[in-house]
Amino acid sequence: MPQAKISAFFKPSSPHPPPVAPPPPPLEISVTYTRRHPNPESKRSDIDGSQLYSSEIEKNDGIAVSSLRSDPVGKLVNKKRSYAQYHLELGQSDFLLHTCSVCGLRYARGDEGDEKVHKTFHKSFYEGIHFKGWRSERLVSKPSCNGNRILLVLDCDPSAQKRKVEEIIKIMEKELGFSDDQLLHKLCKVYLFISRHRIVGCLVAEPIKKAHRIISNSSSCNDSDDISHKLAVADTELMRPKPTVQFGAFSFKREAIKRSCSTNSAKVDQWDGGAILCEEEAVLALCGFRAIWVVPSHRRKGIASQLLDVARKSFCSSKMLDHSQCAFSPPTSSGKALASRFCSSNSFLVYMAEDV
Questions:
Q1: In contact, 213 and 325? CB cutoff 8 Å
Q2: Which are the contacts of 143, defined by CB distance < 8 A and separation ≥ 6?
Q3: Which residues contact 49 (CB under 8 A, 6 or more apart)?
Q4: Main-chain dihedrals φ then ψ at residue 141, nearest 5 degrees
Q5: Residue 208 pLDDT more than 90?
Q6: Is 235 helix (H, G, I), strand (E, B) or coil?
Q7: What is the crossing angle of helices 303-314 and 333-343, to 10°?
Q8: For a Cys staple, 106 with which of 6, 97, 158, 298, CB 3.0–4.6 Å?
Q9: What CA–CA distance (Å, rounded) separates 249 from 133?
Q10: Could you tell me the pTM of the whole model?
Q11: Distance (Å, whole) CA 151 – CA 211
């Protein structure tokens, strides 16, 4: 009996199993990706020249999949960060650039490139431009036996000589106040003073037809009369009663100090920066001194006077010019003193653009 119950318990199932419900259909989820606009800053090349390509959209079985394509080496380039120093400019004077008090060049202190440029320019401006010499030099004078010499450069000379002259002309234009490319033209003759392998002086001369004599009174204004007038005024001031200011028991009096008057010789070296008056009648002149310049380290050594004298003797190949046949362009205060010493008179010749 127990055996029958056990057999009945393990009785096989019926040959036709009950029907099973079919599984529900799978849930479809559509994912859509939109292509972004390309960023030009993201495409940067690294040291090996590889690039990071933008991702492309690939479709697989109706599902959008994004893939990233790399360079052949297999490196991904990270975007490099750029660091910049910012400043607040609130109207400070000389904020970023420093102006040299000697050569006048503006440069950024602490910047290696600017410091190097300023050092080279400052040395050329103060001590003279370095000069190795030329194979064919037009020597016009040797002022002394210590190697100093004066060379003449014309427009027909080789390009190497003309480039050296243009380098000097740029410095002269900046210091003398000429506009760019306005100082030199084809008819000019350039005299260079060479000392110890450096160009320390330059004179630009040009042919002219006439000039006007300067009126000495416009510059000196009768020095003796002017000095006498100043002395009379000073004496009158001394004779006037001095004003007194009283503060309780203390009284303060104004004291006049008599200043020493300059002599005529000092007037020649330091001219007043006023207008120049010239005679209306023009006189014959052949050589015009357009501009003259000497480096600061060699001034007060007679270099400018030597250049003027050599130009007077060699400007015309047929004859030597007299001082009265040479004229100056409208001079500065220093140029007036130089012209007076060269002509030994306060009445020298001045020419304008229409006199050329």
A1: no
A2: 149, 150, 306
A3: none
A4: -165, 150
A5: yes
A6: helix
A7: 60
A8: 97
A9: 79
A10: 0.59
A11: 27
Cα torsion 154, 159, 161, 163: sign:
positive
Residues 6+ apart with CB under 8 A from 157: 138
34-38, 50-54, 171-175, 224-228: which is most confident: 171-175
CATH assignment, 128-214+274-355: 3.40.630.30
How large is the greatest C-alpha to C-alpha distance in the chain, in angstroms? 166
Residue range 252-283, pLDDT digits in tens: 555 555 444 444 433 333 344 567 788 889 99
Which helix (H) or strand (E) is 310 found in, with range? helix 303-314
| Residues 293, 335: Cα–Cα separation, whole Å | 10
What percent of the chain is predicted at pLDDT more than 90? 30
Alpha-carbon distance of 228 to 34, in angstroms, equals 97
Query: What does the DSSP 8-state code read for residue 354?
Result: G
Cα–Cα dist 295/283, whole Å: 33
Strands of the chain (E only): list them.
56-60, 63-67, 98-99, 106-107, 129-130, 139-141, 149-153, 189-194, 198-207, 210-214, 244-247, 250-253, 278-284, 287-294, 326-328, 349-350
**What residue ranges do the domains of the chain occupy?**
96-127, 128-214+274-355
Cα(267)–Cα(219) distance, rounded to whole angstroms?
A: 9
* Interstrand relation of 326-328 and 287-294 (parallel, antiparallel or unpaired): parallel
One-letter identity of residue 293: W
Pairing of strands 189-194, 198-207: antiparallel
H/E element, 305: helix 303-314
CA 99, chain centre distance (Å):
10
Written as one letter, the residue type at 337 is A
